[in-house]
Specification:
The complex is a heterodimer of chains A (about 290) and B (about 425). Chain A has 11 helices and 11 strands. By secondary structure, chain A is an alpha/beta fold. With about 425 residues, chain B is mainly alpha-helical. The chains are: A alpha/beta (about 290), B mainly alpha (about 425). At the A-B interface, helix 3, helix 4 and helix 7 of A face helix 15 and helix 16 of B.
Chain lengths: ~290, ~425
C-alpha cells in the first residue's frame, strides 16, 4: 500500500515537472532510451532486441534491448509491476502458458532466435533453467527431484551416471552434506532454504547455460538468503544467471550488472557498483535511494 | 465521518458499547451452534430410525425355518427299474416322497382339501433337497431317514413372527402346535438367500442373481466411465483451447450431471437396444446406460481434482523442460489421482443404487437364473429390492429389508475403499 502511494506521489512529481520545462532537465526523467550499457561487445549469452510484451491489449514491456553476458550475474530491479518478472519469463518462454501473452522483437540464445517456430520449447527450457519465487520441489524424494530432469531428457545411460549427476548437483547447490543420508525423504519435507537450494540443484542437474531466478530469496529467512546468495556467486563460474530481486542489497551483493526497470521500460543498465553509487537516471536514483519502491 | 462516529458513541462509552455488542455476538454465535447441533442430531435420529427399521424388519430373512420329517426313499418312486441311472434319478418325482411322509405323519387327514393344506406346510424347495441327497448318495434309496426340510413361507412366518404374521388358519395351526411339541421345527441360517436367484416362493428367493447382475453392471460402468471420464477431464482441463466450443461442451457436461436418470434409460433403450440391437435386460446395456449417467460426475470431479493441483508444480515441471504431456502425466495426474478416484467411486456408488434407467432397458424382468455373462438377462440389487417390495407375500417384506441391508453393505464397502485409496495416494506438497 505504502509503495503504491509513494509511487503515485512520485509520478505526480514527474508530471508536474514535465509540465514545467525549466524546473529540471527533461532527459533525466523521461525513459525514451535506455541509458548505461545495455549492449555488450563480446561473450554474450542472450541478445534481446526491441522486445515488446502484451497481455491482451495491455502492453507490459516496451522496447527492451539488453544483452546478457556469459558467466555474469545480471540483476533486474525495479518497483512492483515494472515488468522485470515478465521480461525474465520471456527468456525461457514460460509466458507461453499464458494464452493472451504476445511477444514481439527478438530474443536470441547463442545467436538462435528462441521464438522461432522451429525451436523446441522443451530444449530451450533445458538450456535456460529457472528457479521460482516460492520453492517448488516436486512432492517426491530428494533423489527423484534431481533425477527428473536428466531422466526426461535422456542424459544418462545407467543408474551410476544418474547417481553421479544427483550427487554433483547437490554438491554444487551446497546441499549434499545436509541431505546425503536421506535422499529418499520427500523433498517437500526440507526447510524453506533447503527446498530452494534443492530447486537450484534440480535446475543445474541438466546443465543449463542460463539460470533464471525469479526473486529466489523472497520466501526465505536472512540466514537461508545468505547461503543462497553465496551459492549464486559460486554458480557464476559455470552458468549465466539472471536474477530478479526486490532487495537492492541482494542485487548489490550478487550481481555484476544491474538493470533497472520502470513501468515496463528498461531505464538504466550498468555495472552494479556504478548503478548503486552513481546512477545516471533520476528514476534509478530515486528508486535506489528508497524514495519509492 | 468522524462527526457521525462521535455522535453515536461518546469517547468514554466505547468500552461499554463493545461489551454490549459482544453480548449480542456471543448470543448469535450460540444460536448458530445450537442450530447446527440440532440439525446434526435430527439427521442422526432419522438415520437411526431408518437403520433400526430396516434391520429389525430384515434380520429375520437371514434365518429360515425347517421341518423335520421322516422320509422313506421309496425305490418304487425314485428308481422303479433299479438301474441307478443318474438321469432317471434326477427326473424322479420327489414330491411324492414328501407327500407320503406328511400323510404318514398325519394319518387322520383324509379329505383332498385337508391333504392339500397339509402338503403346503413344506416348501417345493424340499424336492430339490431330496434330489440332491439321492444324487450324491444313491445308496440312500430304500432307507428311512429323519430329515430337516425347508418349510413353506407361511410356516416360516408363523414360526418366526407368530400367528398374526401368517396366513395359516384352523387345522394348520393345530399341526404347527403338534410339530412344535415334537421339536420338529427349527431355524437355521438361510444360505439360500445368498446362493439362489429370484423365485416366486419367498422361502426360496435369493439375491445371488441380483448381486452378480450388479457386479457385472458396475464392472462395465467402471471399465468404461473411469478411462473415458479421466481422459475427457484431462483433455478439457489441460489441453483444450479456451473457446466457445469448449465452453459449450463444458456447459453440457454440467447440465448432463443434473439430467434425471430415467432419461438416460430412455436414451439407452433408443440407442443400445433399438438401434444397436443389443439384448434386452443384459448387464452390458445396463453398464452402458450407467456409464452415460456416471460420466458427468467423474468428469466434473476429475476436473476439480486437476484444478486443485498447485500451479507451482506445473511451472516447476515446465521449467525443467518437460513437455505438457510429461507435466500432466508425471506430476499433475499423480497429485489429482485421489480426488479423481473419490469422484469415480461416488459416481459408481450412485450407479450401484440406480433403479430407474434400468427399468427402461428391461432389467426389471423376473429372472430366476444367475447370469453367467454380461449378455445374459439379469437384474440388479436395487431393482430386486423394488420387485420384492412390490410382491404381495408377507415373507417378501423381510427379504426386501434384507436386500437393502446387502445393498447398503456394498455401498459402505465401496466408500471405505474410496477412503482407503485416498489415504494411500494422498501426498502433501506444501
Amino acid at each position: 500500500m505504502l509503495a503504491v502511494d509513494q509511487r503515485e506521489a512520485f509520478m505526480s512529481v514527474v508530471e508536474t515537472r514535465v509540465g514545467e520545462p525549466d524546473s529540471m532537465k527533461m532527459d533525466e526523467l523521461s525513459i525514451e532510451n535506455t541509458i548505461g550499457k545495455p549492449l555488450l561487445e563480446k561473450k554474450i549469452s542472450m541478445h534481446c532486441r526491441e522486445v515488446d510484451v502484451f497481455y491482451g491489449d495491455k502492453q507490459a514491456i516496451f522496447d527492451v534491448s539488453l544483452d546478457i553476458g556469459k558467466n555474469e550475474v545480471l540483476a533486474m530491479i525495479g518497483p512492483s509491476g515494472c515488468g522485470k518478472s515478465t521480461f525474465l519469463r520471456c527468456l525461457n518462454r514460460m509466458n507461453d502458458t499464458i494464452s493472451s501473452c504476445k511477444i514481439t522483437g527478438s530474443i536470441r540464445l547463442d545467436g538462435e532466435d528462441i521464438y522461432d517456430p522451429k525451436v523446441d520449447v522443451e530444449l530451450l527450457r533445458a538450456r535456460v533453467g529457472m528457479v521460482f519465487q516460492k520453492p517448488n520441489p516436486f512432492p517426491k524424494s530428494i533423489y527423484e527431484n534431481i533425477a527428473y530432469g536428466p531422466r526426461i531428457h535422456g542424459l544418462t545411460r545407467d543408474k551410476t551416471e544418474l547417481d553421479e549427476i544427483v550427487e554433483t548437483s547437490l554438491v554444487r547447490a551446497g546441499l549434499w552434506k545436509e541431505v546425503k543420508d536421506r535422499l529418499d525423504d520427500v523433498g517437500t519435507g526440507l526447510s524453506g532454504g533447503q527446498q530452494q537450494r534443492l530447486c537450484i540443484a534440480r535446475a543445474i542437474a541438466i546443465n543449463p547455460e542460463v539460470i533464471l531466478m525469479d526473486e529466489p530469496c523472497s520466501a526465505l529467512d536472512p540466514i537461508a538468503t545468505a547461503i543462497v546468495e553465496e551459492l549464486i556467486d559460486e554458480l557464476r563460474q559455470r552458468y549465466t544467471i539472471v536474477i530478479v530481486t526486490h532487495s537492492m542489497q541482494q542485487a548489490a551483493r550478487v550481481s555484476q550488472r544491474t538493470a533497472y526497470f520502470h513501468l515496463g521500460k528498461l531505464v538504466e543498465v550498468d555495472k552494479t557498483d556504478r548503478i548503486f553509487t552513481n546512477p545516471s537516471h533520476g528514476l534509478t536514483e530515486a528508486y535506489i535511494t528508497g524514495r519509492f519502491g | 465521518m468522524t462527526d457521525r462516529i462521535k455522535a453515536t458513541v461518546k469517547r468514554g462509552q466505547v468500552r461499554e458499547a463493545i461489551e454490549q455488542s459482544l453480548i449480542r455476538r456471543r448470543k448469535r454465535n450460540r444460536r448458530f451452534r445450537m442450530l447446527g447441533l440440532g440439525a446434526v442430531i435430527l439427521g442422526m435420529l432419522f438415520l437411526g430410525m431408518m437403520f433400526s427399521s430396516i434391520i429389525s424388519k430384515g434380520y429375520s430373512a437371514f434365518v429360515r425355518t425347517d421341518i423335520q420329517l421322516e422320509i422313506y426313499f421309496d425305490p418304487e418312486v425314485i428308481d422303479p427299474q433299479g438301474a441307478r441311472n443318474p438321469d432317471v434319478l434326477a427326473s424322479a418325482t420327489y414330491g411324492k416322497l414328501v407327500k407320503a411322509a406328511l400323510r404318514k405323519a398325519y394319518p387322520e387327514v383324509k379329505k383332498r382339501k385337508g391333504k392339500r393344506k397339509l402338503y403346503r406346510l413344506v416348501s417345493t424347495g424340499a424336492i430339490q433337497q431330496l434330489r440332491d441327497l439321492v444324487l450324491s448318495d444313491p445308496a440312500i434309496i430304500g432307507t428311512r431317514k429323519k430329515l430337516w426340510l425347508i418349510a413353506d413361507d407361511d410356516v416360516d412366518q408363523y414360526y418366526k413372527h407368530g400367528e398374526n404374521q401368517s396366513r395359516l388358519k384352523g387345522r394348520q395351526l393345530a399341526w404347527m402346535a403338534q410339530l412344535r411339541a415334537k421339536d420338529a421345527l427349527k431355524t437355521s441360517f438361510n444360505t439360500n438367500f445368498f446362493t439362489a436367484g429370484d423365485s416366486r416362493e419367498p422361502e426360496l428367493a435369493g439375491i445371488r442373481g441380483a448381486v452378480v447382475g450388479s457386479f457385472f453392471v458396475i464392472l462395465i460402468t467402471l471399465g468404461l466411465s473411469l478411462p473415458l471420464g479421466v481422459a475427457a477431464a484431462i483433455y478439457l482441463e489441460e489441453f483444450s483451447p479456451r473457446n466457445r466450443w469448449t465452453d459449450f461442451v463444458e456447459i453440457n457436461i454440467n447440465n448432463l450431471a443434473a439430467v434425471p436418470s430415467i432419461v438416460f434409460g430412455l436414451l439407452g433403450l433408443a440407442v443400445y437396444i433399438n438401434f444397436f440391437e443389443l439384448p434386452r435386460s443384459a448387464p452390458l446395456v445396463g453398464g452402458l446406460v450407467l456409464t452415460l449417467m456416471t460420466l458427468p460426475t467423474i468428469i466434473i470431479a476429475s476436473r476439480a481434482a486437476l484444478k486443485s493441483v498447485p500451479p507451482s508444480i506445473r511451472e516447476a515441471a515446465l521449467g525443467m523442460g518437460a513437455s505438457k504431456m510429461q507435466m500432466v502425466f508425471h506430476h499433475v495426474l499423480p497429485l489429482a489421482m485421489p480426488g479423481m478416484l473419490t469422484g469415480t467411486i461416488i459416481g459408481l456408488a450412485q450407479a450401484l443404487g440406480e433403479t430407474a434407467p434400468l427399468l427402461m432397458i428391461g432389467m426389471v424382468a423376473f429372472i430366476v437364473d444367475i447370469p453367467s455373462s454380461i449378455l445374459d438377462p439379469a437384474t440388479v440389487l436395487p431393482v430386486q429390492i423394488y420387485l420384492w417390495a412390490d410382491s404381495p407375500e408377507r415373507a417378501f417384506t423381510e427379504k426386501t429389508s434384507a436386500a437393502i441391508m446387502v445393498l447398503l453393505a456394498f455401498l459402505v464397502l465401496m466408500n471405505l475403499f474410496a477412503i482407503w485409496l485416498r489415504r494411500k495416494f494422498e501426498r502433501r506438497w506444501d
